[in-house]
Structures are given as C-alpha cells and as structure tokens.
Design a protein that fits this description.
Mean pLDDT: 81
Number of helices: 9
Shape: flat
Low-confidence stretches: none
Number of domains: 2
Strand content: under 5%
Order of helices and strands: HHHHHHHHH
Helix content: over 70%
Structural class: mainly alpha
Distance between the termini: 44 Å
Radius of gyration: 20 Å
Largest sheet: none
Length: 261
C-alpha cells in the first residue's frame, strides 16, 4: 500500500518515536558518553534512523530517497528546537545543531536508499549507472567515512573500550588505524577515478570529527588526560593507513577489471 509523501514521512517519524521509546525503556535514556552502553545506544539509534528513513521512502509511490532526507531534516529541526529550549546556546549549541543537521538526514537518507533498492528496476538502474562505472568522489568518500565510523564503533564494542574515556592509548590508535584502512579501501573501490587522495579525504574528515569531539569535551570542562603530541603523531599514522587502504582498493579493482576482460 502506497501513501502520499507527507503521510509516509509521518509514519517514518512515528516509527522512530516508538523505537526510541523502546530503546529508552530497555537501555535507559540514550547517552553516548556512558561507555559500552553508550556505544550500544549509538548503534541502536543509528539503526532506528535507518528504519525511519526506510519507511518514509518505501510507502510512497515514487520511492524517492529525498523523502527519507526530509524526515531527517524535520527530526533535526525538532531536536534543535528542544535543545534551544534547554538554553543550550553558544558554540556548543551551534556545534550540536550542525551535527544534527548532517547526521540525521544522512542516516535517514541511507534508509531511504535501502527502501528504493527493494524494487528490481531501481536495482538494475543503480547497477548499470554506478556499480559498473563507479561513484562520484563525494559519494565514495562519504560511504568510506561511514564505513570507517561504523567499524570503529564495532571494534570498540568488541574490545570493550570506553568511547567516553579521556585518555588515548595504543588500542585507540589500532582501532582508528584499522577503521581507516577499511574506509580507505571502500572509498577507492567505489570511486570512478582511482586516485589515492580520496582515501586521504576520508582520513581528514575523521580527524576533523575527532578534533571537534575533543573541543567539545574541553568546552564542557572535561580534563583530557593525554599528550597532544601523541595524538598528532597518531593522526599522521592514520594518513598512512588510509592511504594503504586506498592502495589496496585500487589493486583489487584493477584485478577485478583484468579478470572481466
């Protein structure tokens, strides 16, 4: 059964609201600053946004991804208004608002994309247009960044590392390096032009995200127990692994093209 886009978006928002309530009842109020449970809440909340975007797109006649994105923008607006109501202003409030308006539409848009791919015609069009010829650099870099971020969260869960820790150790570097290795590989595997610089772009986005997180913690008055020299050296190592992942992506792609000839 297909509905008007407005109704479909409302259904997606309702689904997110219900699942968030279930999440809050099960794990308590979502808080990404509470160790392993915070990581679990973060992963679950991300999946909930996927589901909301999927519903917002799937139940429309034309199944356009933008309906999932619209849902994300609406949710980001509502949450931002709620934060303003809590007197969260200044640089911290601006940072949170920007993050919401990037993350929410991105994840609900991914859910919309998954919904669109449920139709055979859309899958065939996507395969002929993108999988055969490759993606634009922007899409490939964003996918690489998302993959790297998801890998980092999953590795933290597996290793039992507290993501809210104010110290930076060897395990943190290893997790970041492995995640960027995979993210760089995915980016160069998907992109049209096999230029290793796109793997470095993923690394730059990850580093900027890390710096913003560090800045937010400093603004909140959290004492950071780490050496900035160590973190800087780690960032240089991240570039190395992102480039290595990109290089492997180029090798695998070239090998695949060679076998198809």
């Amino acid at each position: 059964m297909k509905y008007h886009p407005v109704i479909s978006i409302i259904l997606g928002a309702f689904a997110i609201f219900v699942f968030i309530l279930i999440l809050a009842r099960t794990l308590g109020e979502p808080n990404i600053n509470i160790g392993i449970m915070g990581d679990i809440s973060l992963v679950t909340a991300t999946l909930i946004l996927f589901v909301g975007g999927f519903i917002a797109t799937y139940f429309t006649k034309d199944m356009k991804i933008r309906y999932g994105i619209y849902l994300g923008l609406i949710l980001a607006s509502l949450v931002t208004i709620g934060e303003i109501g809590r007197n969260l202003v200044g640089y911290k409030g601006i940072g949170i608002a920007i993050t919401l308006f990037v993350i929410f539409p991105l994840f609900t848009g991914i859910g919309g994309f998954i919904a669109r791919m449920t139709e055979k015609n859309n899958r065939q069009l996507f395969k002929s247009k993108h999988l055969t010829n490759g993606f634009s650099p922007i899409i490939a870099v964003m996918v690489g960044f998302i993959v790297a971020t998801v890998c980092a969260v999953l590795l933290e869960l597996i290793a039992g590392i507290n993501s809210a820790s104010t110290t930076y150790g060897v395990f943190d570097f290893v997790i970041g390096a492995i995640s960027l290795l995979i993210g760089g590989f995915v980016t160069l595997f998907l992109v049209k032009e096999k230029k290793i610089q796109y793997g470095f772009y993923v690394c730059i986005i990850v580093i900027i995200t890390s710096i913003l997180k560090l800045y937010t913690e400093i603004v909140q008055g959290i004492v950071i127990h780490e050496s900035y020299y160590v973190r800087t050296c780690s960032y240089l190592g991240y570039f190395l692994f992102a480039g290595l992942g990109g290089y492997l992506g180029i090798i695998v792609t070239n090998h695949k093209l060679k076998n198809n000839k």
